[in-house]
Specification:
about 325 residues, alpha+beta, Butyryl-CoA Dehydrogenase, subunit A, domain 3, 5-stranded antiparallel sheet, 5 strands, about 70% helix
């Protein structure tokens, strides 16, 4: 039981750690959405000779009329961009590198409140993941004390579930804000085509690991409680059987003791009656002997008196 519970705790800690790593990485990176933007091609220069409009050698002469034979999409350049929660970065067509802008400033004014709410939810999501991870580690280190481990397990499960719900809400709100920004954002930023990036996949992977960790933690808590209830039931059943056995032994013991005392009492009564009758008979015998002796003595006294009187009369 202890080994199984420790394995489940290790699995929960591992899933929570993966969720924390994924969520933190997604929060600080700018690859939630990526795609291309269609922008007009810049003029060719000495530094730039590709993906530009070439007007010839006299392109700096203001008196010359410049003609461009490029039409349709040939006049535009498709530059790549990627966007995160904080920044949106696009390729710089004039020089090497990228140019980044705040995504909060790019979002429509009506959606900035929702975007800030999404940011706050993401922060709370990460903080609750940290709290859940700490509680799971404490439970793992206090595995010898089952009661304290169960309490920590329950709190860790609650915090992990709450963090998962906040993370889901935050991801959905950001997706909604981005889609609205694609339609109503600045003209120079609106993407021509876009798709979700690896940061977005990591964010939802973090949510999946978080919910898996919470389910594993709840499962561990439930299994431990069920095992304790089963052991308690077996203990109470054995205690009742032992109590019934002791009651039966006590019943037989007191029954035998009562029979013994009953027999002893009867023996004592019979002995008392016998002794009483014996001493009574002895007393009566002695009393009768005494009466008989007194009677004989009285008779002899009378006889002696008669003899004395008779002698006196006859002068003997």
């Amino acid at each position: 039981m202890k080994t199984t519970r420790k394995c489940r705790a290790l699995l929960s800690v591992g899933l929570n750690l993966v969720a924390l790593f994924f969520s933190t990485t997604a929060f600080i990176t700018t690859y939630w959405c990526e795609g291309t933007q269609r922008v007009p091609k810049p003029n060719c220069s000495k530094q730039r000779r590709h993906n530009c409009i070439d007007y010839g050698v006299n392109e700096t002469d203001q008196n010359k009329v410049h003609y461009s034979w490029e039409t349709g999409d040939d006049r535009f350049l498709f530059r790549r961009f990627h966007t995160g929660i904080w920044y949106s970065c696009e390729e710089n067509i004039h020089e090497a590198g990228e140019k980044c802008r705040s995504f909060i400033d790019l979002a429509p004014a009506s959606e900035r409140g929702v975007l800030w709410l999404s940011v706050v939810s993401e922060v709370l999501y990460i903080l609750l993941l940290v709290v859940g991870f700490s509680l799971m580690c404490l439970e793992l280190f206090h595995s010898s004390n089952v009661i304290d481990g169960l309490k920590l397990n329950a709190f860790a499960a609650v915090f992990t579930v709450l963090s998962g719900l906040l993370g889901m809400v935050a991801h959905m709100m950001y997706t909604q804000v981005f889609q609205i920004t694609v339609s109503l954002g600045p003209e120079d930023w609106r993407p021509h085509s876009w798709d979700y990036g690896w940061s977005f996949c990591m964010a939802w992977g973090s949510f999946t690991c978080c919910m898996a960790a919470s389910v594993t933690t709840l499962n561990s808590y439930t299994k431990t409680v069920i095992e304790f209830r089963h052991k308690r039931k077996l203990f109470e059943q054995g205690l009742r059987e032992e109590q019934n056995y002791l009651d039966q032994e006590a019943f037989h013991y007191f029954r035998d003791r009562s029979l013994h005392w009953k027999n002893l009492f009867c023996l004592n009564v019979f002995t008392y009656i016998y002794l009483s009758m014996y001493y009574t008979s002895c007393f009566l015998s002695s009393f009768l002997d005494l009466i008989h002796f007194q009677h004989i003595k009285h008779i002899m006294y009378r006889q002696n008196t008669v003899i004395i009187c008779y002698a006196n009369n006859f002068n003997l």
